[in-house]
Amino acid sequence: MAQHWGKEEVIAFLCDGGYEFKMVEHEAVFTMEGMEALNLPFGDEVVKNLFLRDDKKRNYYLVVMPEGKPANLKELRTKLEARPLRFASEDDLVQYLGLRGGAVSPFGVLNDEEALVQVVFDEELRTYKGLGVHPNDNTATLHVALGDMVRIVEEHGNAFRFVELSRPEPEE
């Protein structure tokens, strides 16, 4: 049986690897509104993570983007040169990333033994000091440097890329 990467394993991995991070433990949160209510010290750098698949279930994507930016799946499809995108099911989330809804995180790739999931980072995240992400568990949030997160994904063997996703024009 392969190792399951939960909160303790992710934190031990970061400590053992010499990664710098901040951690805030909190009650379980399941929504971005719940995250905002925590008033984390790095709350403005908490990201949202979308687990998507194409319509043929051939490609799976973990999209990491600014929390306040709406996700435009048509634009994303074009940027990825992918087939039509849909949200993956809870079963897919468990199968590929070993996660439950509410705990989706780039650290989920550590549970993706075959490195099948492609990680897509929004270009805008390059302006962040770090990413506010769950350690595969929604009872804590970590603040991890983007470069470290990218290195973890890359060293695990998952494909990743940065894409520029637009923000909608404000209504007049």
Could you describe the largest sheet, including whether it forms a barrel? 5 strands, mixed
Helix share bin? 25-40%
- In total, the number of strands is 8
Output the CATH homologous superfamily of the domain at 46-136 and 143-163: YbaK/aminoacyl-tRNA synthetase-associated domain
Instruction: Determine the CATH topology of the domain at 46-136 and 143-163.
Output: YbaK protein
Order of helical and strand elements? HEHEEHEHEEEHE
The separation of the N and C termini measures 56 Å
CATH architecture level-2 label of the domain at 46-136 and 143-163: Alpha-Beta Complex
Radius of gyration: 15 Å
User: Could you tell me the mean pLDDT?
Assistant: 94
Map the helices and strands.
Blueprint: H1 7-16, E1 21-25, H2 32-37, E2 47-54, E3 60-66, H3 73-80, E4 85-87, H4 90-97, E5 117-122, E6 131-133, E7 140-144, H5 146-156, E8 160-163
Parallel strand pairs: 3-5, 5-8
Antiparallel strand pairs: 1-7, 2-3, 2-4, 6-7
Structure description:
The protein is α/β, with parallel strands linked by helices. It has a domain at 46-136 and 143-163: YbaK protein, CATH 3.90.960. Helix content is 25%, strand content 24%. The chain contains five helices and eight strands, in the order H-E-H-E-E-H-E-H-E-E-E-H-E. It has helices at 7-16, 32-37, 73-80, 90-97, 146-156; strands at residues 21-25, 47-54, 60-66, 85-87, 117-122, 131-133, 140-144, 160-163. A five-stranded mixed sheet has the order 4-2-3-5-8. Strands 1-7-6 form a three-stranded antiparallel sheet. The radius of gyration is 15 Å and the shape is globular. The model has no long low-confidence stretch (mean pLDDT 94).
